[in-house]
Amino acid sequence: MSKAEDKSQIIKTIKEVALKYDAQLVGRTFLYVFDGRTIEVVFRRKDFMHLTGVDANMSGEQFFKNVISDKLKANQIYFSQRHPYDLCARKISQLPKLISVTNSEIFILEDTETMTFTYKFGLTDLECTVCLSKDVDKTGKKVSRYYIARSLRVEDSFDKAANAFEVQYIFSKPGGNWLYDTVMYADKRYPIDSLPQQVLDMLDDKLKSKPENN
Q1: Calculated CA dihedral for residues 202, 18, 98, 201, nearest 10 degrees
Q2: What is the DSSP letter of 68?
Q3: Is the separation of the CB atoms in 85 and 60 below 8 Å?
């Protein structure tokens, strides 16, 4: 397969995932419950390009817009010393897991170190890790309480993390809503009514009133 054909296949995969990312993740907030704690996570369009591992001479917002509108061309993406082709190819193979880390059994990694940065939390299925960082502006000032999906690591990151925890629940809600109204994943060993009160206060009443939780 030629390099141009490689790029065309990469773009095809990126678009397939981008459409699901836009439909299922963007505009929603995800609540992860673990170790008696919670974190709230959002997935933004402008960060998607970095998650893919490719480089392009355009903003993250423009990249995403071009991808989902089928306007991204093979000659618009490239690889670099920072984002080499081999790494990109591995990331592309794991890219569909951006969706599954919001609705399946995963682990939370705390204080995950990479060569260039330490991420406060990571979402991992053992084969890849979605690294999260605080939502801050360029000066480091806190913008919101949410964590942002910033990087995709295609490796087992357990040995690079200070702690690891099983996720007990993943909830989601539309971004504008106050309460979480959807269960994305549940560890059946933990009934909803056994969760800490601080978590229950974040849930819509309909989740707490299901027969199996009474």
Answers
A1: 0
A2: H
A3: no
Q: Show Cβ contacts of residue 69 under 8 Å, excluding neighbours closer than 6 positions.
A: none
In degrees, to the nearest 5, what angle opens at C-alpha 198 toward C-alphas 197 and 199?
Answer: 90
For residue 129, how many other CB atoms are within 10 A of its CB? 30
Show the beta-strand stretches assigned E in the chain: 28-34, 37-42, 55-56, 77-78, 107-113, 118-124, 129-136, 142-153, 161-166, 169-174, 182-186
Euclidean distance between CA atoms 133 and 42, whole angstroms: 11
CA distance 136 to 123: 19
> Could you count the other beta carbons within 10 Å of the beta carbon of residue 149?
25
- Helix-helix angle 3-24:85-94, to 10 degrees: 40
Q: Which two tokens stand for residue 110?
A: 């705390």
Q: Who contacts 164 (Cβ-Cβ below 8 Å, separation ≥6)? A: 107, 108, 109, 110, 158
Which positions of the chain have pLDDT values less than 50?
1-2, 211-212, 214
CA atoms of 98 and 50, how far apart (whole Å) = 13
Digit-coded pLDDT (tens) for 141-190: 888 899 999 999 887 788 888 899 999 999 999 988 999 999 999 999 99
Give the pLDDT of residue 28.
97
Task: Quote the CA–CA distance of 154 and 27 in Å, as a whole number.
Answer: 25
